[in-house]
Structure to design on (158 residues):
């Protein structure tokens, strides 16, 4: 009953918005009547958080009032001939409260007068649900440049 009413309302709106003449354009009206409304029970989430940090420290703090799912990250590190081998990493707090390093990019210092660069890009196949109100943080060791980016989406409480 609700679907039938929805179809009628949809048909009327399309006829009005498109300016269809039902006596002249029966094919279009027949097409409109064949529309079957559907309800998407599993909408695709849209990434609504992208944060970048160019030093050690907090990249992003997860919201306290909604869930945050991490969908990917990027780590860029560089060093020069005067540095030691080093790395950059991202640490998160999982929903169960345990802290995890989810990515680490290693860079090797070269003896030649040039810089070395390491990049790690990860698009997670399955998003990671993180604990509410916790920090996603970046750390570095023996590198002269670090850039980290995280991206994900939030889900409101139902």
């Amino acid at each position: 009953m609700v679907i039938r009413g929805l179809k009628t309302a949809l048909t009327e709106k399309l006829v009005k918005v498109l300016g269809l003449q039902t006596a002249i354009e029966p094919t279009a009206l027949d097409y409109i009547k064949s529309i079957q409304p559907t309800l998407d029970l599993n909408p695709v989430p849209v990434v609504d958080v992208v944060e970048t940090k160019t030093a050690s420290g907090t990249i992003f703090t997860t919201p306290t009032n909604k869930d945050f799912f991490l969908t990917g990250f990027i780590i860029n590190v560089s060093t020069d001939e005067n540095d030691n081998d080093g790395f950059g990493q991202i640490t998160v707090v999982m929903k169960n409260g345990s802290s995890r390093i989810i990515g680490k990019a290693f860079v090797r210092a070269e003896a030649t007068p040039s810089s070395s660069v390491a990049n790690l890009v990860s698009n997670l196949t399955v998003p990671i649900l993180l604990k509410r109100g916790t920090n996603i943080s970046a750390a570095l060791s023996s590198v002269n440049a670090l850039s980290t980016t995280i991206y994900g989406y939030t889900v409101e409480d139902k």
